[in-house]
């Protein structure tokens, strides 16, 4: 983060559910003094054309993220468990769709 | 060669391979510092252009000829503000703060599109801006939807969806005027005369003189060259002008059967350089309006922060 943002309003990440039945999806971020202002600004900035039925705002500093550098080792444990994929199991054609 | 250099070359090669494979680069991925700086420069300029772009149109909000036109223009200007915000937010993922970007704009260090330094003299200009300026912007932005930097590409997709309303509203204003009284038709023609060349300048210098192009193409920040995009815009726009029965102010403009494109005259690059340097008709006015708006809003930002702190303290006190 830069040092030069004294007095800058905090950054919030915005997530929007476009319609019921779908997940919230990250759409961008915005600056707001508090969560309430962030919600209203998110409505104005990200849903001017009915793009959403539900909005989440989260302070960017509250998000904990994995880092791309450890992409390899972090996901390692999944690599040697091919039997988690249905294609691992060979079945005769006669069994039909399974 | 030192270990550090070799390590760097390996990272850079892996980065370029990723770009070649059409994989997107995301904020926390390793990227060459120059890639980051190029993006910060281009994306912040793009954001500034959206924001400053509100000013020439704002001039006509109170003067629009009907309540319907006012409401539509207001919605369009609100979109431009929104586009600025999408882009600032995407640029911040590269590690520059919003305030730093504002400082660069307000101090004149960062540029914005030279087109907004031309004045909007009458209502027909609002039509011409929507049709031509937004049309040129869309041509540029469609290419950017496939930019290698994920957040920029995603912001562009969102923006492109909204821009087509802008272009259509502009063309509809031109259509109404071109089919109106003789005086209205003359206004439409006059607006086209004044906005045509500055619009063609929006695509930037010719490929042979474009300082940043080659590297940006290699990094797939840019997907098509300035001249290619300019040609695309001309080819699309000439028939639209013909439909309006308006004349594009270029004696050399004619269809070239062999190339399958329109040939067109040379841009006055001296004028372009001059406006970019800050000597356009409205450079000072635009920047001043922008600085005034930011300074004028300072007390609102401070009050909002003070309110948030007070609420926070009250909540803490109640919990204790």
TrEMBL record, chain A:
Provenance organism: Sneathiella litorea
Protein name (Swiss-Prot/TrEMBL): 1,2-phenylacetyl-CoA epoxidase subunit B
Keyword list, A-Z: Oxidoreductase
KW Oxidoreductase (keyword) present: yes
Pfam families named among the record's database cross-references: PaaB
EC id: 1.14.13.149
Top-level class of the enzyme under EC nomenclature: oxidoreductase
Coiled-coil stretches: none
Molecular function via GO: phenylacetyl-CoA 1,2-epoxidase activity
Top-rank lineage group of the source organism: Bacteria
TrEMBL record, chain B:
GO cellular component, one term: cytosol
E.C. numbers: 1.14.13.149
TM segment ranges: none
Signal peptide: none
UniProt keyword terms in alphabetical order: Oxidoreductase
Gene Ontology annotations of biological process type: phenylacetate catabolic process
Class of enzymatic activity (EC top level): oxidoreductase
A molecular-function term among this protein's GO annotations: phenylacetyl-CoA 1,2-epoxidase activity
NCBIfam families given in the database record: PA_CoA_Oxy1 (TIGR02156)
Protein name: 1,2-phenylacetyl-CoA epoxidase subunit A
Organism the protein comes from: Sneathiella litorea
């Amino acid at each position: 983060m830069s040092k030069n943002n004294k007095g800058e309003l905090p950054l919030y990440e915005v997530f929007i559910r476009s319609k019921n039945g779908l997940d919230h999806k990250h759409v961008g971020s915005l600056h707001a003094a508090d969560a309430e202002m962030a919600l209203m600004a998110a409505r104005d900035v990200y849903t001017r054309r009915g793009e959403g039925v539900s909005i989440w705002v989260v302070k960017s500093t509250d998000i904990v993220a994995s880092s791309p550098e450890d992409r390899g080792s972090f996901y390692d444990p999944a690599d040697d468990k091919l039997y988690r994929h249905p294609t691992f199991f060979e079945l005769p054609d006669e069994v039909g769709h399974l | 060669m030192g270990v550090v250099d070799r390590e760097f070359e390996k990272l850079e090669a892996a980065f370029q391979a990723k770009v070649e494979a059409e994989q997107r680069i995301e904020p926390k991925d390793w990227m060459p510092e120059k890639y980051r700086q190029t993006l910060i420069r281009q994306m912040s300029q793009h954001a500034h252009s959206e924001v400053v772009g509100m000013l020439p149109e704002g001039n006509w909000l109170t003067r629009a000829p009907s309540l319907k036109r006012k409401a539509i223009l207001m919605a369009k200007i609100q979109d431009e503000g929104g586009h600025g915000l999408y882009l600032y937010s995407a640029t911040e993922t590269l590690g520059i703060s919003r305030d730093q970007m504002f400082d660069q704009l307000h101090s004149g260090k960062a540029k914005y599109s030279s087109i907004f330094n031309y004045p909007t003299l009458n209502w027909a200009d609002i039509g011409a801006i929507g049709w031509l300026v937004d049309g040129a912007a869309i041509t540029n932005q469609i290419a950017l939807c496939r930019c290698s930097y994920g957040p920029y590409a995603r912001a562009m997709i969102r923006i492109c969806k909204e821009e087509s309303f802008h272009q259509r509203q502009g063309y509809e204003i031109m259509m109404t005027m071109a089919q109106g009284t003789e005086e209205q038709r003359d206004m439409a023609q006059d607006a086209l005369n004044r906005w045509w060349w500055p619009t063609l300048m929006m695509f930037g210098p010719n490929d042979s003189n474009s300082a940043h192009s080659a590297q940006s193409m290699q990094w797939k920040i840019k997907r098509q060259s300035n001249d290619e995009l300019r040609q695309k815009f001309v080819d699309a726009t000439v028939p639209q002008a013909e439909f309006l029965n308006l004349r594009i102010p270029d004696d050399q403009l004619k269809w070239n059967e062999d190339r399958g494109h329109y040939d067109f005259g040379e841009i006055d690059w001296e004028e372009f350089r001059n406006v970019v340097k800050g000597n356009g008709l409205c450079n000072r006015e635009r920047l001043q309006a922008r600085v005034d708006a930011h300074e004028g809003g300072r007390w609102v930002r401070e009050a909002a922060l003070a309110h948030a702190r007070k609420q926070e303290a009250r909540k803490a006190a109640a919990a204790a």
